[in-house]
Design brief:
This is PaaI family thioesterase. This protein has 164 residues and is an alpha+beta fold. It is built from 3 helices and 6 strands; from the N terminus they run H-H-E-E-H-E-E-E-E.
Length: 164
């Protein structure tokens, strides 16, 4: 499809009461299916081929020239955004209705640089532990040949969503 025939994606933030009413995996799946708006940060990432199972999410993206840093390669913030998003959504996919999360910290390791010639990359996030107050997860970015480009770990705070 070219830009004239591609469906217009409406980015936004899902109202808290809607999010709180859904199990996390249902929320993530609804967002991936376009039934709920993807968050505005995804305008820069343009994910596709998205899947969500309890504790595991995966999506693809294509690094482009718009993601370049001053030294002529894809900025580390692109990889960090992919990894943080995948880890957070993996955690979210394990939460019951009325429970939320936020990232407390994450660590990224850059293994191999990306350019606009890298092609589609796959980001997969997977939970390690999800408790009542804290969750941990990991994520990996690989290229089409399965080579590791970057990986990360996170700790998230788990909490009851405030009533609206």
């Amino acid at each position: 499809m070219d830009d004239r025939t591609a469906p217009k994606i409406e980015f936004g933030v899902t109202p808290l009461d809607v999010m709180a009413s859904m199990a996390g995996v249902d929320f993530v799946r609804a967002m991936f299916a376009g039934k709920l708006p993807p968050p505005p940060i995804m305008q820069t990432i343009e994910p596709f081929d998205q899947t969500a199972e309890p504790g595991v999410v995966a999506f693809h993206s294509i690094p482009g020239f718009r993601h370049y840093n001053p030294i002529g390669s894809v900025h580390g913030g692109y990889a960090a955004t992919l990894l943080d998003s995948a880890m957070g959504l993996a955690v979210h996919s394990m939460l019951p209705p009325g429970i939320g999360y936020t990232t407390l910290e994450f660590k990224v390791s850059f293994i191999k640089g990306m350019t606009r010639d890298t092609g589609a990359v796959r980001t997969e996030g997977r939970t390690l532990s999800v408790g009542r107050r804290a969750a941990t997860a990991e994520a990996r970015i690989t290229d089409a040949k399965g080579r590791l480009l970057a990986h990360a770990t996170t700790t998230c705070l788990v909490f009851e969503l405030p009533a609206t």
